[in-house]
Amino acid sequence: MQVLLIKKQDMPTNKNAIVRYKYLDKMLSDRYHYYDIHDLTDKCNEWLEFDGFQCVSQRCIEKDINELSFSPFSADIERYRYNGKRCIRYKDPTFSIFNKKLSEDEKNLLAEVLNTIGQFEGLDNFDWIDKLKQRLNIEEHKKIISFSNNPYLRNSNLLGVLFSVISNKLVVNLTYHSFKNEQERNIVVYPYLLKQWNNRWYLIASAEDGFILNFALDRIDKVEPLLDRKYKDIDCDLEERFEDIIGVTIPADKKVEEILFWISDKSFPYIDTKPLHASQVVINNDNELRSKYPQLHNGKFIKLNCMINYELFQLFMSHLEDIIILTPTHLQDKIHNTIKTKNEEYFSLRK
């Protein structure tokens, strides 16, 4: 099996020549017709004229065929006799100048790419992965790159189904139950994206009112395509929307806020090398903040600009021992109240 790998810089700069090479490539690989140089010239000019290009001479075609024999094409061209005609063709009928065999490095890289999405293998909608490996003659090899994956995730079989409905732009009726309520609910949505966060897969979709929603796959009970409903494309850049948040929850009524927090020296290297958000900035000129918060010894002051959602809150709670939220006050209050409630619950256990 071969794939298209000719690079732009390897191609002739003359647009007319590229078009002629395309026509010649088609005829030289044809085993049902027998073309000599006159046939190749006449047929090529016929197609050139039809496509609005200037016709060329037989000498030009001869030169083109000669060019195909050299790098980067390196076509093995044979000349043979048929019914008194001196015909020209590729020695290998499967050869094409627009195809190049995969190198070992390319095969290994492609195998690794297929292994990367190996979590989809075995699903009804992803049977083509195994077939593609066979067609490309790619051998199985030991995994080189390992991504985080939860093999025990419930409803992972829905990945293939949802991939198909998104690809084919189908409206779907979802039957699901939330984390807080086990009662099944139904909602008609326009699916846009499958997104992974914290080892869990989510379907990102919009409701009929336009609100962007997310559904954890392990909460989805049924996916029913509505073939008679017209699909609505999203009217914004979804990836851009995700740039303003951590995780998958896009708040409908919130704006990007500046978040200032202090972090201990112990945890700073971790946060510094693995930022919580792309907007993360370490405040180096922090004399004013040191004066304002004298009780915070050493450590670093860090600023974020993003929306405050559930995932951000949970992330701060996971670093509770080493992070103190300074602004905005409503986030500070929420964390303080959560800690207070939890302390009271622990205290009650000791009575």
Q: What is the number of beta strands?
A: 11
Mean pLDDT: 83
**Morphology call:** elongated
Derived from helix and strand composition plus strand pairing, the structural class reads: alpha+beta
Q: Specify the biggest β-sheet.
A: 5 strands, antiparallel
Percentage of residues in DSSP E strands = 15-25%
Distance between the termini: 73 Å
Order of helices and strands: HHHEEHHHEEEEEHEHEHEHEH
Radius of gyration: 31 Å
| Unreliable stretches covering 5 or more consecutive residues | 1-13
Strand order of the largest sheet: 6-5-4-3-7
- Please work out how many helical segments DSSP would assign: 11
Percent in helix: 25-40%
Describe the 3D structure.
With 351 residues, the chain is an alpha+beta fold. The protein contains eleven helices and eleven strands. The strands form three sheets. It has a five-stranded antiparallel sheet with strand order 6-5-4-3-7. Strands 9-10-8-11 form a four-stranded antiparallel sheet, covered by helices on one side. β1 and β2 form a beta hairpin. α1 crosses α2 and α1 crosses α3. The protein is elongated and about 105 Å long. It starts with 14 loop residues before the first helix and ends with a helix.
Summarize the structure.
This protein is of the alpha+beta class and 351 residues long. Helices cover 33% and strands 21% of the residues. The strands form 3 sheets. It has a 5-stranded antiparallel beta sheet.
